[in-house]
Specification:
single chain; two-stranded antiparallel sheet
Length: 50
């Protein structure tokens, strides 16, 4: 039994919560979602300076 789960929540083009959620416990899906998160984390810029 797999204890890992992944949920992705997206925003639409207007920046509003989309209410379309993706859930999976499949290892390949979790890996893909983790890679996707890390990609966007890597190209994102902070909203505020510390």
């Amino acid at each position: 039994m797999c204890d890992n789960k992944m949920a992705l929540i997206f925003f639409n083009q207007n920046g509003k919560y989309d209410y379309e959620e993706l859930f999976s416990a499949d290892e390949n899906a979790i890996g893909w979602a983790s890679d996707l998160f890390e990609y966007y984390k890597g190209i994102s810029k902070p909203l505020f300076e510390k």
